[in-house]
Amino acid sequence: MAIHINTELLRDKRGKRSQADIAQQLQEMGLTVTGNYYGKLERGKVEKVSVDLALAIASLYGLQVEDFIKFIPEESPKEIRGSKIPQNIKKKIGMKLRELRKDSGMTAREVALKIGVEGKTPETYIYDLERGSGSIERMNKLSELYGSVFGENTAQTLEDLLDEVYEDIRGELRKND
Question: For tag attachment on the chain, is the N or C end more exposed, with fewer CB atoms within 10 Å?
Fold first, then answer.
């Protein structure tokens, strides 16, 4: 999931204030943002924005996060598998995977064996994934497994799960506005 920042809107909302002034206001809100970093953000040179920073900018300008940040699905699942997903997002994916496992009626041990995890306690590996630890590839295998169990009514790939997680985050952000 990539982001697109509406740089024009941010520059327009900043008005005659300098980027350093905006960074100072964000620092007063408890964030560690420099004028240089905010300038990169405003020019669209930043690929990741923390939820805290997005909320602070929205609050500062009287906007909703969706007004200036758009989430864009990645074109290739390989890009997601090879990238680093922030830990807080992995935890949310893990929670979704746990919900799906519970809904399927399968135990963690059964799931582990279905995706090829072996050993003395394979269920421990599933519990780790459900807590947001573990590889993206294994999370993807789990989401594909649950997709085959539930059919089209549920996430079938890691990308689908990411879409659901980001939609949940957008919902949370809307509630906070």
Answer: C
